[in-house]
Design goal:
The structure is a homodimer of 378-residue chains. Helix content of chain A is 29%, strand content 23%. Chain A is of the alpha/beta class. Chain A folds into 2 domains: 24-260, Alanine racemase (TIM Barrel), CATH 3.20.20; 261-377, Lyase, Ornithine Decarboxylase, Chain A, domain 1 (Beta Barrel). In chain A, the strands form 2 sheets. In chain A, strands 1, 10, 11, 12, 13, 14, 15 and 16 form an 8-stranded mixed sheet that branches. An 8-stranded parallel barrel of chain A has the order 2-3-4-5-6-7-8-9, surrounded by 5 helices. In chain A, helix 2 crosses helix 3 and helix 8 packs parallel to helix 9. The two termini of chain A are 16 Å apart.
Chain lengths: 378, 378
């Protein structure tokens, strides 16, 4: 959405290059919506989605927890005043240095998905609480997380005797069904499988095992119109169905859903070409593309929505949307052209909606000499 | 290759995060190799491949020309002392501001591929020399440049009467067969088509039309072992065959081939997992991946070669190679696992060879909290 705050900012500050305005009010609302719907789970904001210091400070002020992926993200949280005790080091790929640093500053929870990573945690964070990430990845996610992460649930169960001999405290398991998981119907089977593991952990003496159900809560792109609150309520219902008779300590890790619709990007048409595709769509080149903010549109993965200043009644025309660099992969929408006002011209303003997640952090340091997406969060 | 200079640097400077060492000696040698083989063409270094200030300064010192993609790259060249008269603004997607800036500082040559961009050049750089980029893209390139760029040759010929009425000086055409074009056999047909256009331009009163044959000269990745000098000699031969009887002003735009084998990256194994793929390959997670330097390995596009400090006789084992972020697209080689010493361990040093092109500039500002690839050029 184009928030009131973003419109006011854009109108009062001169444009020089593409910029993202993120509404902190909306970030807080989204976090509260999720935490309130999933009231039995502790809600860790996935910093990777948007690590702007003001976002971290605002969420910290309301007592949020944070999921971090690296030493760099831990340092960003600490710099924003977040107590280390409210961090979870959820990455399964951690350098020894990063583990040692996290342990030293007081991060209480670590995740592994193989014996070697468990051994590293035991060595560099001796005695620390740990979760094993299991592979329940969903194929339905827009940005799936398969193969790279997670051990097979039965492998974990086989490895339990070995893990008990390591100097760490196995507290439970985590999983992640994949980012932008629009089909809430994927949750029940995953939770049923998680329950099987959790139940087994209870027989091994872990009283109320921790279960981190990850993120995946969808943002309102063109492909999803279901609404965040409703989605979270359905997940809460699925959790209740699965665990009403099984003591479990729940946590979740939303990132995208907290920040996406809080952000709107202002950009410009760099060139409206008279060249057309064989389907008759004009090429529309923006001053923003895959390399300075819209990496998730690569291969037409995330279907961002666009708006312009043209009157809403203007006739529409299909456009192939492309970024500004001399790189042919820097094309945003070609297979599925986007309908935009036919009268658009070079220099016209374009808004990219629901763009607060995975935009600034994915921007390159300056490919083709274009500066990374600027962010204002207020 | 692991240059002498890079090995000395790595041995004498403590490691903190992945770093690229680029040998300026080798950059100069490569530029001279190309310029000498293609002696009838003016050789413009494509800044986008690696815009490090020391590289620009070294090439400037030997009188090189430069192809730029944006106002940002023009500013980088000027800051390195390059005279604006040795720049070509080769991007076909330029904001009006960028054209006006280039014109004001004295950039003499601009490129368009549609009437609207030609009109912009005429308006913001009145009277400037311009080339029309035509679409002769090769499907054989590793990183093809199709569809997004270039007008059909016959469309250009039809538009000539209109272009003559604009306030610009049409001097000729440019084309680009695509980056890392390993099959030199693609050149003759492209040059034959270019000759057809050039010949027609001569009948329109352009005495010795400019022909920018682009870049695409391949770097020595796993997929190409032909050698740069030999490749350039074959291209020179094809140029001679095509244009020996047609006056033409030749230019070329190598980027990758100038810097790739001058650079070597030092990285570390973050985790050697005991998990295996169904083919039996272990997952090997490095502290560098798609988002902090190796974007071109995405979807296994560019096949970087790896080396380690293990003795050369050590037994090898297939590894799936992955980056360190919590993102499943951050996987470098999965379909084609890479044979590396079986004894590799967490913390071991890894070299990534021929990594001087399209690595630093593609790095994100800090996705997942990992710093962008550091570069030392000396």
């Amino acid at each position: 959405m184009i928030t009131t705050e973003s419109r006011e900012y854009f109108e009062s500050h001169q444009y020089t290059s593409p910029r993202l305005f993120t509404s902190l009010r909306r970030v807080e609302e989204n976090y509260r919506t999720i935490a309130s719907a999933l009231k039995h789970a502790t809600c860790f904001y996935a910093v990777k989605a948007n690590p702007h210091p003001e976002i971290l400070k605002r969420l910290n002020a309301i007592g949020a927890y944070f999921d971090v992926a690296s030493r760099g993200e831990i340092e960003q949280c600490l710099a924003a005043g977040v107590p280390a005790t409210r961090l979870s080091f959820g990455s399964t790929i951690k350098t020894p240095d990063a583990i040692a640093f996290a342990y030293q500053v007081g991060v209480p929870l670590f995740v592994f998905d193989c014996l070697e990573e468990a051994r590293k945690i035991a060595e560099y964070a001796p005695g620390a609480a740990a979760l094993c990430r299991i592979d329940l990845a969903s194929q339905a996610a827009k940005w799936p997380l398969t193969a790279k992460f997670g051990c097979a649930p039965d492998d974990l169960l086989e490895q339990l005797p070995y893990l008990r001999r390591l100097n760490l405290t196995l507290e439970g398991v985590s999983f992640h069904l994949g980012s932008q998981l629009e089909d809430v119907g994927e949750w029940p089977w995953a939770l049923a499988e998680a329950k099987r593991i959790v139940t087994r952990l209870r027989t091994e003496g872990i009283e109320a095992p921790r279960l981190n159900v990850g993120g995946g809560f969808p943002a309102p792109y063109a492909s999803f119109t279901g609404g965040l609150e409703r989605y979270c309520q359905l997940v809460a219902g699925a959790l209740e169905d699965a665990f009403h008779d099984t003591p479990v300590t729940l946590m979740c890790e939303p990132g995208r859903a907290v920040v996406a619709d809080a952000g709107v990007i202002e950009a410009r048409v760099a060139l409206k070409s008279d060249r057309r595709t064989h389907n008759g769509a004009h090429w529309l080149y923006l001053d923003i593309g895959v390399f300075n903010g819209l990496f998730e549109a690569y291969s037409e993965g995330i279907q961002f929505r666009f708006a312009s200043d043209r009157p809403s009644g203007d006739p529409l025309s299909p456009f192939v949307i492309s970024g500004p660099t001399c790189d042919s992969v820097d094309v945003l929408f070609e297979k599925k052209p986007v309908d935009l006002p036919a009268g658009l011209e070079t220099g016209d303003r374009i808004f990219i909606l629901d763009a607060g997640a995975y935009t600034t952090s994915y921007a390159t340091i300056g490919f083709n000499g274009f500066p990374p997406l600027e962010q204002i969060a207020a």
